[in-house]
Automatic annotation (TrEMBL), chains A, B, C:
The chain crosses the membrane at residues 6-23, 30-51, 57-79, 91-112, 118-137, 149-167, 173-194. Residues 6-80, 92-165 form the Glycine transporter domain. It is found in: Cell membrane. InterPro entries: Gly_transporter. Pfam families: Gly_transporter (PF03458). One of its GO terms (cellular component) is plasma membrane. It comes from Owenweeksia hongkongensis (strain DSM 17368 / CIP 108786 / JCM 12287 / NRRL B-23963 / UST20020801). It is a multi-pass membrane protein. PANTHER family: INNER MEMBRANE PROTEIN, UPF0126 INNER MEMBRANE PROTEIN YADS-RELATED. The keyword Transmembrane helix applies. Keywords: Cell membrane, Membrane, Transmembrane, Transmembrane helix. This is Putative membrane protein. The keyword Membrane applies. Belongs to the UPF0126 family.
Amino acid sequence: MSFQYYLELLGTFVFAISGALAITGKDKDWVGATFTGFITAIGGGTLRDILLDRHPLVWISDMAVVYTIVAGIVCVYFFSKTLGRLSKTLLLFDTLGISLFTIVGTEVALHHGVRGEIAVVMGMFSAVMGGVIRDTLTQETPVILQRGVYASACFIGAVIYLILRYFDLDRNLNFVISISSIIIIRLLSVRYEWAVPGFDRKFMRKEVD
Amino acid sequence: MSFQYYLELLGTFVFAISGALAITGKDKDWVGATFTGFITAIGGGTLRDILLDRHPLVWISDMAVVYTIVAGIVCVYFFSKTLGRLSKTLLLFDTLGISLFTIVGTEVALHHGVRGEIAVVMGMFSAVMGGVIRDTLTQETPVILQRGVYASACFIGAVIYLILRYFDLDRNLNFVISISSIIIIRLLSVRYEWAVPGFDRKFMRKEVD
Amino acid sequence: MSFQYYLELLGTFVFAISGALAITGKDKDWVGATFTGFITAIGGGTLRDILLDRHPLVWISDMAVVYTIVAGIVCVYFFSKTLGRLSKTLLLFDTLGISLFTIVGTEVALHHGVRGEIAVVMGMFSAVMGGVIRDTLTQETPVILQRGVYASACFIGAVIYLILRYFDLDRNLNFVISISSIIIIRLLSVRYEWAVPGFDRKFMRKEVD
């Protein structure tokens, strides 16, 4: 079992936690928490593999993935007091999840034979689509559509990974560097309220009838 | 044509009805009703087959499925007066749909060669994801995230099916028993307001800023 | 490269524009605009190809598609002042997109070997599902569920395409006629407020508790 495999399991674990946290405090039950945790954890990677026609899906052939998700959800239930304030905890686990999945997803896509540009897109999809599905199901505005540095941190991390790979850096070291860069960018951006430039240059909302 | 085939058609029929009912009384037109009925009827099974890489999809290769869906939608239009109060009718058809699709979905997944645990997940996905898509499109909270016994009834039914199958019970008899058990659990749970244990143990909503 | 290829690229371009326009004026950033433009542009065609098991997906193997989408999004940013009032502009680009994608999607499905009825469904899915995903992400009621002539214009255009194809009309001429018919029907329907018959015959909303 490779380093990448354990990183993917860790990403699955923290995303299951972020999914279960997302419905915590919303008067939901164990089924809701399990469903949201499961969908958040497998959503991005599953979408990536379906787009790439990569079968069988990891969680269908490898039961460790399913048990990891269950473990994440149970952790939220039992350690919720220890986990501290909800919004900060959710941010932390979500950040860990997107950083791991971006780089693992980029690597998987490259290994599948697609071009670098598409691999970056696939890495970002792996990272953010689980959260997009989670937010859509819980009727929140998807994080990717909110202001702030989120998908762009994934983008930068994936590009760093590609560049270091081009220069033949050791693969595991490259994983560590590019994953860390996403975590650092994301957390600093929240702390210092960085933002990506707005898209509205001339249209004003009042123009819309 | 097997017993399973007719159960799947019946499930498709009642789910098309549940989809068309879901937008009834919401000032929608025939296109909206057809779209919602169609998506609800094929959503769960299609997702299951895409996840399992099972092609061609049933409704693409078998026109009977498409005509069954159209029949269900037309029925809602013409018999809507006879169908009685909307919420109870929707509950009945949705319950029939999830019970049929859970067991057919579990069986299809087992036949495809996956493990029992994954087959149960696939059975539940077949059953609930059509409704999840229906609710997302009509901007309702997905039923699976509401309190009450819904996906858990499917879960119990799928496990009953697996156990009886392990003891080599006649397949059609097993279908009847496990499907009935889902219907009974679901309807009793609504009548007596059974609920799955809540997930919030310590987090309070006020903790969230 | 065929006429159909350029029509598909043009459809991708205008759908990317419609996606980026959909979040214009909503305080979003470049990432949000790019994501929405991308998902809207590839959503319908990707869903069609996944349902038909047609791999690799166009945008994964052909970088021209990705660059076309980026061009569309950049155009919205720079020409937004010239584009005029938002609602009318969005209508125009969306109409162009659905007309092109309906016919290209129908043709692709027929070429893949499915029956005429399914090809029509696939054409409509190609056309409307990008917009359905766009509207779901931006938490709007999907256009297909709103009153008016939308998916039904696609339906009529796809049937016209099938009929002319049956009579062996020149393929490119057929494209022009059937695409134009969708554009004309859609724009006239908005101008004269045509509507598809309502679905609610007897149920009243007050019946619902």
